[in-house]
TrEMBL record, chains A, B:
Ranges annotated as DNA-binding: 31-50
Protein's organism: Fictibacillus solisalsi
Molecular-function annotations in GO: DNA binding
The keyword DNA-binding appears for this protein: yes
Sorted UniProt keywords: DNA-binding
Domain called HTH tetR-type: residue spans: 8-68
Entries under SUPFAM superfamilies matching the protein: Homeodomain-like (SSF46689)
Taxonomic placement: Bacteria, Bacillati, Bacillota, Bacilli, Bacillales
Protein name, entry field: Transcriptional regulator, TetR family
InterPro entries given in the database record: Homeodomain-like_sf, HTH-type_TetR-like_transc_reg, HTH_TetR
Pfam families found in the cross-reference section: TetR_N
Length: 196, 196
DNA sequence: TTTTTAATTTAACCTTTGTAAAGTTATAAG
DNA sequence: CTTATAACTTTACAAAGGTTAAATTAAAAA
Protein backbone atom coordinates (compact mmCIF):
# COMPACT_ATOMS: atom_id res chain seq x y z
CA UNK A 1 0.00 0.00 0.00
CA UNK A 2 1.42 3.41 0.88
CA UNK A 3 1.63 6.11 -1.67
CA UNK A 4 4.07 6.74 -4.40
CA UNK A 5 7.44 7.88 -3.21
CA UNK A 6 7.80 11.60 -3.10
CA UNK A 7 10.61 13.37 -1.37
CA UNK A 8 8.98 16.75 -1.34
CA UNK A 9 5.77 15.55 0.21
CA UNK A 10 7.60 13.49 2.82
CA UNK A 11 9.75 16.40 3.83
CA UNK A 12 6.65 18.52 4.13
CA UNK A 13 4.96 15.92 6.31
CA UNK A 14 7.95 15.82 8.60
CA UNK A 15 8.08 19.58 8.94
CA UNK A 16 4.37 19.81 9.69
CA UNK A 17 4.53 17.06 12.26
CA UNK A 18 7.65 18.56 13.77
CA UNK A 19 5.97 21.91 14.09
CA UNK A 20 3.08 20.44 16.00
CA UNK A 21 5.35 18.41 18.22
CA UNK A 22 7.88 21.13 18.95
CA UNK A 23 5.24 23.78 19.53
CA UNK A 24 3.35 21.51 21.84
CA UNK A 25 6.18 20.02 23.85
CA UNK A 26 9.17 22.28 23.37
CA UNK A 27 12.55 21.11 22.20
CA UNK A 28 13.49 18.81 25.01
CA UNK A 29 10.02 17.41 25.40
CA UNK A 30 9.59 16.68 21.72
CA UNK A 31 10.19 13.12 20.59
CA UNK A 32 11.53 12.09 17.22
CA UNK A 33 9.45 8.95 17.46
CA UNK A 34 6.36 11.01 18.12
CA UNK A 35 7.05 13.27 15.16
CA UNK A 36 7.40 10.24 12.95
CA UNK A 37 4.13 8.88 14.23
CA UNK A 38 2.31 12.17 13.63
CA UNK A 39 3.66 12.23 10.11
CA UNK A 40 2.75 8.61 9.57
CA UNK A 41 6.32 7.91 8.57
CA UNK A 42 9.21 5.80 9.61
CA UNK A 43 11.39 7.31 12.30
CA UNK A 44 14.50 6.87 10.24
CA UNK A 45 13.20 9.03 7.45
CA UNK A 46 13.67 12.00 9.69
CA UNK A 47 17.36 11.29 9.77
CA UNK A 48 17.36 10.90 6.06
CA UNK A 49 15.93 14.35 5.53
CA UNK A 50 17.47 16.15 8.47
CA UNK A 51 20.76 15.88 10.27
CA UNK A 52 19.17 15.37 13.64
CA UNK A 53 16.85 16.86 16.20
CA UNK A 54 18.62 20.18 16.43
CA UNK A 55 18.78 20.63 12.70
CA UNK A 56 15.14 19.65 12.45
CA UNK A 57 13.91 22.25 14.88
CA UNK A 58 15.86 24.96 13.13
CA UNK A 59 14.40 24.03 9.78
CA UNK A 60 11.00 23.83 11.40
CA UNK A 61 11.22 27.31 12.82
CA UNK A 62 12.48 28.76 9.58
CA UNK A 63 9.73 27.02 7.71
CA UNK A 64 7.14 28.35 10.11
CA UNK A 65 8.53 31.85 9.99
CA UNK A 66 8.32 31.74 6.24
CA UNK A 67 4.76 30.52 6.34
CA UNK A 68 3.35 33.21 8.60
CA UNK A 69 2.16 35.75 6.12
CA UNK A 70 3.27 39.15 7.18
CA UNK A 71 -0.20 40.27 6.22
CA UNK A 72 -1.35 39.82 9.76
CA UNK A 73 0.73 42.65 10.93
CA UNK A 74 -1.13 45.66 9.69
CA UNK A 75 -1.96 47.38 12.92
CA UNK A 76 -5.09 49.48 13.37
CA UNK A 77 -4.75 53.21 12.91
CA UNK A 78 -6.03 54.01 16.37
CA UNK A 79 -3.70 52.85 19.19
CA UNK A 80 -6.75 52.30 21.36
CA UNK A 81 -7.46 49.27 19.22
CA UNK A 82 -3.98 47.81 19.11
CA UNK A 83 -4.38 45.61 22.14
CA UNK A 84 -7.63 44.01 21.09
CA UNK A 85 -6.29 43.59 17.58
CA UNK A 86 -3.19 41.83 18.76
CA UNK A 87 -5.24 39.69 21.10
CA UNK A 88 -7.45 38.64 18.23
CA UNK A 89 -4.49 37.77 16.04
CA UNK A 90 -3.00 35.71 18.83
CA UNK A 91 -6.20 33.80 19.38
CA UNK A 92 -6.90 33.19 15.75
CA UNK A 93 -3.49 32.58 14.27
CA UNK A 94 -0.74 32.27 16.78
CA UNK A 95 -1.88 30.08 19.64
CA UNK A 96 0.48 27.22 18.96
CA UNK A 97 3.35 29.50 18.16
CA UNK A 98 2.80 31.38 21.40
CA UNK A 99 3.00 28.13 23.23
CA UNK A 100 6.33 27.59 21.63
CA UNK A 101 7.58 30.98 22.74
CA UNK A 102 6.63 29.91 26.22
CA UNK A 103 8.94 26.96 25.92
CA UNK A 104 11.61 29.11 24.52
CA UNK A 105 11.40 31.40 27.52
CA UNK A 106 12.26 28.73 30.02
CA UNK A 107 13.57 25.68 28.24
CA UNK A 108 17.00 25.45 26.74
CA UNK A 109 16.41 25.49 23.03
CA UNK A 110 19.10 25.65 20.38
CA UNK A 111 19.43 29.15 18.99
CA UNK A 112 17.84 29.99 15.72
CA UNK A 113 19.16 33.32 14.66
CA UNK A 114 16.87 33.42 11.67
CA UNK A 115 13.60 32.96 13.51
CA UNK A 116 14.74 35.19 16.32
CA UNK A 117 15.65 37.88 13.86
CA UNK A 118 12.28 37.90 12.17
CA UNK A 119 10.41 38.07 15.43
CA UNK A 120 12.56 40.93 16.54
CA UNK A 121 11.70 42.81 13.38
CA UNK A 122 8.00 42.30 13.93
CA UNK A 123 8.15 43.40 17.54
CA UNK A 124 10.22 46.41 16.68
CA UNK A 125 7.80 47.35 13.97
CA UNK A 126 5.18 47.44 16.71
CA UNK A 127 7.37 49.80 18.68
CA UNK A 128 7.90 51.99 15.65
CA UNK A 129 4.21 52.03 14.97
CA UNK A 130 3.55 53.20 18.49
CA UNK A 131 6.25 55.80 18.27
CA UNK A 132 4.83 57.25 15.08
CA UNK A 133 1.39 57.39 16.65
CA UNK A 134 2.94 59.17 19.58
CA UNK A 135 4.37 61.73 17.18
CA UNK A 136 0.91 62.14 15.76
CA UNK A 137 -0.32 63.00 19.24
CA UNK A 138 -2.34 59.82 19.66
CA UNK A 139 -0.19 58.50 22.48
CA UNK A 140 0.73 60.32 25.69
CA UNK A 141 4.26 61.68 25.52
CA UNK A 142 5.26 60.36 28.91
CA UNK A 143 4.72 56.74 27.88
CA UNK A 144 7.68 54.99 26.29
CA UNK A 145 6.56 53.32 23.03
CA UNK A 146 8.65 50.26 23.71
CA UNK A 147 7.15 49.81 27.14
CA UNK A 148 3.68 50.21 25.71
CA UNK A 149 4.51 47.48 23.24
CA UNK A 150 5.73 45.25 26.02
CA UNK A 151 2.52 45.95 27.86
CA UNK A 152 0.53 44.93 24.79
CA UNK A 153 2.45 41.72 24.50
CA UNK A 154 1.93 40.94 28.16
CA UNK A 155 -1.77 41.59 28.05
CA UNK A 156 -2.44 39.70 24.87
CA UNK A 157 -0.27 36.69 25.56
CA UNK A 158 -0.07 35.94 29.25
CA UNK A 159 -3.78 35.24 29.84
CA UNK A 160 -3.83 32.88 26.90
CA UNK A 161 -0.83 30.89 27.96
CA UNK A 162 -1.27 30.75 31.69
CA UNK A 163 -4.44 28.79 31.69
CA UNK A 164 -4.19 27.99 35.38
CA UNK A 165 -3.79 31.57 36.41
CA UNK A 166 -6.55 32.81 34.17
CA UNK A 167 -8.85 30.17 35.56
CA UNK A 168 -7.93 30.78 39.17
CA UNK A 169 -8.50 34.49 38.80
CA UNK A 170 -11.47 34.70 36.48
CA UNK A 171 -13.00 31.25 36.57
CA UNK A 172 -12.77 31.06 32.79
CA UNK A 173 -10.59 29.01 30.56
CA UNK A 174 -8.69 31.17 28.08
CA UNK A 175 -10.18 29.26 25.15
CA UNK A 176 -13.67 30.08 26.30
CA UNK A 177 -15.17 32.54 23.79
CA UNK A 178 -16.97 34.18 26.65
CA UNK A 179 -13.67 34.95 28.32
CA UNK A 180 -12.18 36.15 25.10
CA UNK A 181 -15.03 38.52 24.57
CA UNK A 182 -14.79 39.92 28.08
CA UNK A 183 -11.07 40.28 27.81
CA UNK A 184 -11.38 42.02 24.46
CA UNK A 185 -13.80 44.49 25.97
CA UNK A 186 -11.54 44.99 28.91
CA UNK A 187 -8.56 45.68 26.68
CA UNK A 188 -10.55 48.30 24.85
CA UNK A 189 -11.63 49.95 28.08
CA UNK A 190 -8.17 50.27 29.52
CA UNK A 191 -6.77 51.32 26.17
CA UNK A 192 -9.21 54.18 26.12
CA UNK A 193 -8.08 55.21 29.55
CA UNK A 194 -4.41 54.87 28.77
CA UNK A 195 -4.43 56.67 25.46
CA UNK A 196 -6.62 59.56 26.42
CA UNK B 1 34.87 12.79 56.20
CA UNK B 2 31.14 13.36 55.80
CA UNK B 3 29.12 14.66 58.67
CA UNK B 4 27.25 12.88 61.35
CA UNK B 5 24.14 11.12 60.17
CA UNK B 6 21.07 13.22 60.47
CA UNK B 7 17.78 12.39 58.82
CA UNK B 8 16.23 15.79 59.30
CA UNK B 9 19.10 17.66 57.77
CA UNK B 10 19.36 15.28 54.85
CA UNK B 11 15.68 15.54 54.08
CA UNK B 12 16.00 19.29 54.18
CA UNK B 13 18.95 19.23 51.81
CA UNK B 14 16.97 17.12 49.37
CA UNK B 15 13.97 19.42 49.46
CA UNK B 16 16.11 22.50 48.94
CA UNK B 17 17.96 20.96 46.05
CA UNK B 18 14.73 19.65 44.57
CA UNK B 19 13.20 23.08 44.74
CA UNK B 20 16.06 24.62 42.79
CA UNK B 21 16.04 21.85 40.25
CA UNK B 22 12.31 21.69 39.72
CA UNK B 23 11.91 25.45 39.60
CA UNK B 24 14.72 25.73 37.13
CA UNK B 25 13.95 22.85 34.82
CA UNK B 26 10.33 21.89 35.42
CA UNK B 27 9.17 18.43 36.26
CA UNK B 28 10.19 16.58 33.15
CA UNK B 29 13.43 18.44 32.78
CA UNK B 30 14.49 17.90 36.37
CA UNK B 31 16.91 15.08 37.02
CA UNK B 32 17.06 13.00 40.18
CA UNK B 33 20.79 12.69 39.71
CA UNK B 34 21.11 16.44 39.43
CA UNK B 35 19.11 16.98 42.60
CA UNK B 36 21.37 14.56 44.42
CA UNK B 37 24.41 16.38 43.14
CA UNK B 38 23.07 19.76 44.22
CA UNK B 39 22.37 18.34 47.65
CA UNK B 40 25.76 16.70 47.79
CA UNK B 41 24.10 13.40 48.53
CA UNK B 42 23.81 9.96 47.10
CA UNK B 43 21.11 9.53 44.52
CA UNK B 44 19.58 6.62 46.36
CA UNK B 45 18.97 8.67 49.45
CA UNK B 46 16.26 10.44 47.55
CA UNK B 47 14.46 7.15 47.19
CA UNK B 48 15.04 6.48 50.83
CA UNK B 49 13.25 9.66 51.83
CA UNK B 50 10.71 9.92 49.04
CA UNK B 51 8.74 7.42 47.06
CA UNK B 52 9.93 8.72 43.73
CA UNK B 53 10.09 11.73 41.48
CA UNK B 54 6.41 12.48 41.57
CA UNK B 55 6.17 12.20 45.32
CA UNK B 56 9.24 14.37 45.63
CA UNK B 57 7.87 17.23 43.58
CA UNK B 58 4.65 17.22 45.55
CA UNK B 59 6.50 17.37 48.83
CA UNK B 60 8.71 20.06 47.38
CA UNK B 61 5.80 22.24 46.39
CA UNK B 62 4.06 21.79 49.70
CA UNK B 63 7.26 22.61 51.49
CA UNK B 64 7.73 25.74 49.39
CA UNK B 65 4.14 26.83 49.84
CA UNK B 66 4.58 26.50 53.58
CA UNK B 67 7.78 28.52 53.50
CA UNK B 68 6.43 31.54 51.65
CA UNK B 69 5.40 33.83 54.42
CA UNK B 70 1.97 35.18 53.70
CA UNK B 71 3.34 38.49 54.96
CA UNK B 72 4.19 39.53 51.43
CA UNK B 73 0.61 39.79 50.51
CA UNK B 74 -0.47 42.96 52.20
CA UNK B 75 -1.45 45.07 49.25
CA UNK B 76 -1.10 48.84 49.20
CA UNK B 77 -4.17 50.87 50.06
CA UNK B 78 -4.14 52.73 46.79
CA UNK B 79 -4.89 50.55 43.74
CA UNK B 80 -2.66 52.80 41.68
CA UNK B 81 0.25 51.20 43.51
CA UNK B 82 -0.83 47.60 43.26
CA UNK B 83 0.96 46.87 40.02
CA UNK B 84 4.30 48.26 41.06
CA UNK B 85 3.98 46.55 44.41
CA UNK B 86 3.30 43.19 42.88
CA UNK B 87 6.12 43.70 40.42
CA UNK B 88 8.50 44.43 43.26
CA UNK B 89 7.41 41.34 45.18
CA UNK B 90 7.90 39.22 42.10
CA UNK B 91 11.37 40.56 41.49
CA UNK B 92 12.50 40.29 45.07
CA UNK B 93 10.89 37.11 46.29
CA UNK B 94 9.22 35.09 43.61
CA UNK B 95 11.48 34.91 40.60
CA UNK B 96 12.22 31.22 40.83
CA UNK B 97 8.70 30.35 41.74
CA UNK B 98 7.41 32.32 38.76
CA UNK B 99 9.68 30.34 36.58
CA UNK B 100 8.08 27.25 37.94
CA UNK B 101 4.60 28.52 37.17
CA UNK B 102 5.83 28.97 33.63
CA UNK B 103 6.67 25.30 33.50
CA UNK B 104 3.39 24.44 34.99
CA UNK B 105 1.59 26.39 32.29
CA UNK B 106 2.96 24.34 29.46
CA UNK B 107 4.60 21.23 30.78
CA UNK B 108 2.70 18.26 32.08
CA UNK B 109 3.29 18.32 35.78
CA UNK B 110 1.65 16.01 38.30
CA UNK B 111 -1.20 17.79 40.04
CA UNK B 112 -0.67 19.18 43.46
CA UNK B 113 -4.01 20.15 44.82
CA UNK B 114 -2.49 21.63 47.91
CA UNK B 115 -0.16 24.08 46.21
CA UNK B 116 -2.78 24.93 43.61
CA UNK B 117 -5.32 25.61 46.31
CA UNK B 118 -3.09 28.03 48.16
CA UNK B 119 -2.23 29.96 45.05
CA UNK B 120 -5.85 30.22 44.14
CA UNK B 121 -6.60 31.69 47.54
CA UNK B 122 -3.89 34.29 47.13
CA UNK B 123 -5.04 35.28 43.67
CA UNK B 124 -8.63 35.48 44.73
CA UNK B 125 -7.68 37.62 47.67
CA UNK B 126 -6.24 40.00 45.10
CA UNK B 127 -9.54 40.02 43.28
CA UNK B 128 -11.40 40.63 46.51
CA UNK B 129 -9.07 43.43 47.40
CA UNK B 130 -9.74 45.07 44.07
CA UNK B 131 -13.45 44.61 44.44
CA UNK B 132 -13.50 46.23 47.85
CA UNK B 133 -11.52 49.14 46.50
CA UNK B 134 -14.00 49.40 43.72
CA UNK B 135 -16.76 49.61 46.32
CA UNK B 136 -14.82 52.39 47.95
CA UNK B 137 -14.88 54.29 44.69
CA UNK B 138 -11.17 53.90 44.01
CA UNK B 139 -11.66 51.74 40.93
CA UNK B 140 -13.83 52.55 37.92
CA UNK B 141 -17.09 50.66 38.04
CA UNK B 142 -16.91 49.45 34.46
CA UNK B 143 -13.71 47.47 35.09
CA UNK B 144 -14.16 43.92 36.32
CA UNK B 145 -11.98 43.37 39.42
CA UNK B 146 -10.99 39.90 38.30
CA UNK B 147 -9.88 41.19 34.91
CA UNK B 148 -7.91 43.94 36.57
CA UNK B 149 -6.20 41.31 38.65
CA UNK B 150 -5.40 39.29 35.58
CA UNK B 151 -4.00 42.42 34.01
CA UNK B 152 -1.79 42.96 37.05
CA UNK B 153 -0.50 39.42 36.86
CA UNK B 154 0.21 39.76 33.17
CA UNK B 155 2.07 43.02 33.55
CA UNK B 156 4.13 41.98 36.53
CA UNK B 157 5.03 38.50 35.39
CA UNK B 158 5.28 38.32 31.63
CA UNK B 159 8.14 40.79 31.17
CA UNK B 160 10.15 39.02 33.83
CA UNK B 161 9.68 35.58 32.37
CA UNK B 162 9.91 36.26 28.69
CA UNK B 163 13.43 37.48 28.65
CA UNK B 164 13.69 37.22 24.89
CA UNK B 165 10.61 39.27 24.23
CA UNK B 166 11.54 41.91 26.76
CA UNK B 167 14.95 42.20 25.21
CA UNK B 168 13.70 42.27 21.64
CA UNK B 169 11.22 45.01 22.45
CA UNK B 170 13.07 47.18 24.93
CA UNK B 171 16.70 46.20 24.54
CA UNK B 172 16.90 45.46 28.24
CA UNK B 173 17.22 42.23 30.11
CA UNK B 174 14.48 41.82 32.73
CA UNK B 175 17.06 41.46 35.49
CA UNK B 176 18.59 44.78 34.63
CA UNK B 177 17.78 47.18 37.48
CA UNK B 178 17.49 49.95 34.92
CA UNK B 179 14.71 48.08 33.17
CA UNK B 180 13.01 47.30 36.43
CA UNK B 181 13.03 50.93 37.37
CA UNK B 182 11.62 52.03 34.04
CA UNK B 183 8.98 49.35 34.16
CA UNK B 184 8.03 50.29 37.69
CA UNK B 185 7.58 53.87 36.61
CA UNK B 186 5.59 52.79 33.63
CA UNK B 187 3.29 50.65 35.75
CA UNK B 188 2.63 53.62 37.96
CA UNK B 189 1.87 55.87 35.02
CA UNK B 190 -0.65 53.57 33.43
CA UNK B 191 -2.17 52.76 36.80
CA UNK B 192 -2.82 56.43 37.31
CA UNK B 193 -4.50 56.59 33.97
CA UNK B 194 -6.54 53.47 34.50
CA UNK B 195 -7.73 54.22 38.00
CA UNK B 196 -8.60 57.84 37.52
C1' DT C 1 17.01 -3.44 -19.81
C1' DT C 2 20.66 -2.27 -17.07
C1' DT C 3 22.54 0.86 -13.90
C1' DT C 4 22.40 4.37 -10.71
C1' DT C 5 20.35 7.16 -7.43
C1' DA C 6 17.28 8.12 -3.87
C1' DA C 7 13.33 6.83 -0.81
C1' DT C 8 12.04 3.85 2.82
C1' DT C 9 12.58 0.11 6.23
C1' DT C 10 14.87 -3.02 9.54
C1' DA C 11 18.02 -3.74 13.03
C1' DA C 12 21.00 -2.31 16.33
C1' DC C 13 23.68 0.80 19.49
C1' DC C 14 24.70 3.64 23.19
C1' DT C 15 23.60 6.91 26.62
C1' DT C 16 20.51 8.71 29.91
C1' DT C 17 17.41 8.18 33.59
C1' DG C 18 14.13 6.49 36.98
C1' DT C 19 13.98 2.85 40.13
C1' DA C 20 14.81 -1.57 42.73
C1' DA C 21 17.57 -4.65 45.52
C1' DA C 22 20.99 -5.71 48.35
C1' DG C 23 24.90 -4.51 51.06
C1' DT C 24 27.25 -1.62 54.69
C1' DT C 25 27.87 1.35 58.59
C1' DA C 26 26.42 4.28 62.27
C1' DT C 27 23.26 5.12 66.13
C1' DA C 28 20.31 3.92 69.78
C1' DA C 29 17.80 0.61 72.71
C1' DG C 30 17.96 -3.22 75.83
C1' DC D 1 27.98 -5.53 74.57
C1' DT D 2 24.60 -7.14 71.66
C1' DT D 3 21.05 -6.31 68.61
C1' DA D 4 17.83 -3.84 65.93
C1' DT D 5 16.76 0.07 63.37
C1' DA D 6 17.63 3.54 60.31
C1' DA D 7 21.05 6.23 57.42
C1' DC D 8 23.68 5.78 53.58
C1' DT D 9 26.28 3.34 49.44
C1' DT D 10 27.02 0.16 45.68
C1' DT D 11 25.30 -2.45 41.88
C1' DA D 12 22.31 -3.35 38.62
C1' DC D 13 18.56 -2.97 35.40
C1' DA D 14 14.91 -1.91 32.18
C1' DA D 15 12.78 1.55 29.46
C1' DA D 16 13.30 5.58 26.72
C1' DG D 17 15.29 8.12 23.29
C1' DG D 18 18.71 10.03 19.87
C1' DT D 19 21.51 8.27 16.38
C1' DT D 20 23.97 5.19 13.00
C1' DA D 21 24.53 1.45 9.66
C1' DA D 22 23.04 -1.61 6.65
C1' DA D 23 19.44 -3.69 3.84
C1' DT D 24 15.60 -3.18 0.62
C1' DT D 25 12.76 -1.26 -2.91
C1' DA D 26 11.12 2.15 -6.10
C1' DA D 27 12.14 5.74 -9.59
C1' DA D 28 15.09 7.86 -13.01
C1' DA D 29 18.83 7.81 -16.20
C1' DA D 30 21.48 5.66 -19.69
Amino acid sequence: MGEIRNAERTRRKILDAAREEFFEKGYNGARIESIAKRAGLNKQLIYHYFKGKEHLINETIDDFAGSVSSGNFILPANPKHTAEFRFKVNVEHLMDFLKFTAWEAIDSIPENSNGEERRKLVLQSYVEDMRSKQDMGLVPKELDPSLITLMMSSLTIYPLLYENVTRMITGYKPEDPEFQEKWTDFLRLISERIFD
